[in-house]
Amino acid sequence: MAAYVGLGGNLGDTAVKIRQALQKLDSADTHVVRISSIYETAPLANKDQPSYLNAVAEVRTTLTPQQLFGRLVSIENSLGRARNGRWESRTIDLDLLMHGDQIFESPGLIVPHPQMHLRTFVLKGMCEIAAELRHPTTGRTMQELADRLNGHDFWLDPDRPQLISVAGVIGVGKTTLATKLADKLGCGVLREAYDTNPYLPAACKGDREAALKSQLYFLESRYEQLNADTLPSGKVVLSDYVFAKDSLFAERTLDADQLNEYNTRHAQVERAISEPVLTIYLKDTPARILERVQQRSRPYESSINENSIAELGGDYDEMFADWAHSPLITLDAAQFNCMQNDHVSELASEIRCYICER
């Protein structure tokens, strides 16, 4: 059986410890086949410690997941591993990442590793030696999972709000998707305040004073919905927008003086906003989006055309190119149809890998 082991540490000569661990692992019943490069990575939660060295190894083994895990613990102990806490420094850390395509859970072991898909320092090594290998739970390749992280590392944290934000240009289908996902996940939906914003119609007609009032109205409504007091720890909820897009629209609609006023309030609000644990970016062609916008016949959307949709889509692409707030799942409406129940069900199953449900 092919299995994959993550190796790392940040105390002493970690590179030597990794080599020693691999030598001890290579045996009659577990043969080391391939080893990734060793990467230097920043610590996760506890930043006040040295950087880590990490690598991934592929092994061929006749051991069961429990037996291989026991072997890894034994090797850690033989190399002086002290178990002082989850986020503390360690001489050597050996994680059983995958064991074939098995999905296994016991009180002391979960396979595949429940957070490997959140760690660039793991997926980078996996991509080096098995980029097209599929994760048994998500069904995605190692490369697909790595691309969602954009070079960053995340972790499941039950003590923060479990906010899932659905993003995309106007008319792409965010609210429909968020509503259907919430039904699958058994949670609520936070919707943009389009219908209650009294300044929006005038702003869409070019009223400059209304433009600022409209933008501030959206900002305040988002603050009310997304601040940490509103979203208690462990609560799973979807929003049909991502907070970061608020500035994107302000820069497009406000003049310099208005933007300064807006930015002052935005800086005050931003500090209290809960970051999403997962962001879903829904994309479609400008022509298809315009068709949906025209079908719903909202008066304040009458000036929208394909060019404006394409320009806004470019802004979203640019924003998400440097996305560091959460893992990012990008959906192309040409392959993903939020009106098809099986598509939504599969996505909901994937989402469960990125949240802590209580």
From TrEMBL:
GO BP, sorted A to Z: folic acid biosynthetic process; tetrahydrofolate biosynthetic process
Source domain of life: Bacteria
Keyword ATP-binding in annotation: yes
Domain Deoxynucleoside kinase, first and last residues per copy: 164-346
Enzyme Commission designation: 2.7.6.3
Catalytic class of the enzyme: transferase
Keywords tagged on the record: ATP-binding, Folate biosynthesis, Kinase, Nucleotide-binding, Transferase
Pathway assigned to this chain's UniProt record: Cofactor biosynthesis; tetrahydrofolate biosynthesis; 2-amino-4-hydroxy-6-hydroxymethyl-7,8-dihydropteridine diphosphate from 7,8-dihydroneopterin triphosphate: step 4/4
Gene Ontology molecular-function annotations: 2-amino-4-hydroxy-6-hydroxymethyldihydropteridine diphosphokinase activity; ATP binding; kinase activity
Entry's family note: Belongs to the HPPK family.
Stated role: Catalyzes the transfer of pyrophosphate from adenosine triphosphate (ATP) to 6-hydroxymethyl-7,8-dihydropterin, an enzymatic step in folate biosynthesis pathway.
UniProt name for this protein: 2-amino-4-hydroxy-6-hydroxymethyldihydropteridine pyrophosphokinase
Organism name: Anaerohalosphaera lusitana
